[in-house]
Amino acid sequence: MNCWEYTRCGREQGGTKVAELGPCPAYPRSGNTCASVAGTLCNGTRQGTFASKLNECMQCDFYNSEEYQRN
């Protein structure tokens, strides 16, 4: 499962939020490892590098989900 499927953020290609927020930098190849990709969305805010967003990611439902942990 990809993060945009899990979170329904709408930033995948053709998504409802692409015009407003731009496409997700994790799309299409890194949706299952989004924590390692700079510029992903968290709680409506674009995040920076992995090092700067690690604390946020560790609290993320998707990051802590079985779907993410399988990767």
Helix content: 25-40%
Order of strands side by side in the largest beta sheet? 1-2
Beta percentage is 5-15%
Estimate the global geometry from the Cα principal axes.
globular
Number of domains: 1
**Number of distinct helices:** 4
Number of strands: 2
Whole-number mean pLDDT: 90
Unreliable stretches covering 5 or more consecutive residues = none
Alpha-beta content class:
mainly alpha
Looking at the chains present, what oligomeric state does this protein adopt? single chain
Largest sheet entry? 2 strands, antiparallel
Cα distance, first to last residue?
Answer: 10 Å
Order of H and E elements: HHEEHH
Q: Any idea what the radius of gyration is?
A: 11 Å
